[in-house]
Amino acid sequence: MFTGIVEETGIVKNISKTGKTLVLAIQAKTIMDDMRLGDSISVNGVCLTVTSFKQNEFSADVMPETFKDTSLSRLTNGSLVNLERAMAANGRFGGHFVTGHIDGVGTILSRKPIENSISLEIEIPEAGTHLVLEKGSIAIDGTSLTIFETKSRSICVSIIPHTTLESIVGKKQVGDIVNLEFDMMAKYFYSFMNREADKNQSSKITPSFLKDNGFY
Prior knowledge:
Blueprint: E1 8-18, E2 21-27, E3 40-43, E4 46-54, E5 57-62, H1 64-69, E6 80-85, E7 104-114, E8 117-123, E9 137-140, E10 143-150, E11 154-159, H2 161-166, E12 177-182, H3 184-202, H4 207-212
Antiparallel strand pairs: 1-2, 1-6, 2-5, 3-4, 3-6, 4-5, 7-8, 7-12, 8-11, 9-10, 9-12, 10-11
Enzyme class: transferase
Function: Catalyzes the dismutation of two molecules of 6,7-dimethyl-8-ribityllumazine, resulting in the formation of riboflavin and 5-amino-6-(D-ribitylamino)uracil.
Lumazine-binding repeats: 1-96, 97-193
């Protein structure tokens, strides 16, 4: 579990590609302090497992499903990536609950400086349009952001100067691809409501059935 509060930006130092699998070697500093084999690290919002590490660098595998459904396949040597360690149980919680399981990718449609902020409009997959709402949360490349406007197939978010300095999202340009993770609570609530609706439709015990059989 992550918070969407990026700890630092790392640099991709090497990419080993075999078919639709990758091994990423990423240079970092802050997150290396207490790193152990098997740790979960959010890389541009994708939860990856540390398979090896040395001073100021760690490696992680990217499997075919992640290769297909995220923007990690577009990384090149020298790419900057957002990094966050998994949330400690005794740590201060900021941002929102982020799992590191990407729901799809979005495309930057517009980028507008507005006083001290940068406004981004991002096209989102049609399958996720029911999971966004104004003032709701979304993780973009692992960065927890607040949605300030929704449209039929896009959302608008605002990037403050601190986020621009500490993450890669504020540096994105029109046409760039970003990883999206919709709010976990929205996904669970929607799934629960759909299941309840299915149960009600499939049940033969309806108010009219009860009335017809003398229960009230």
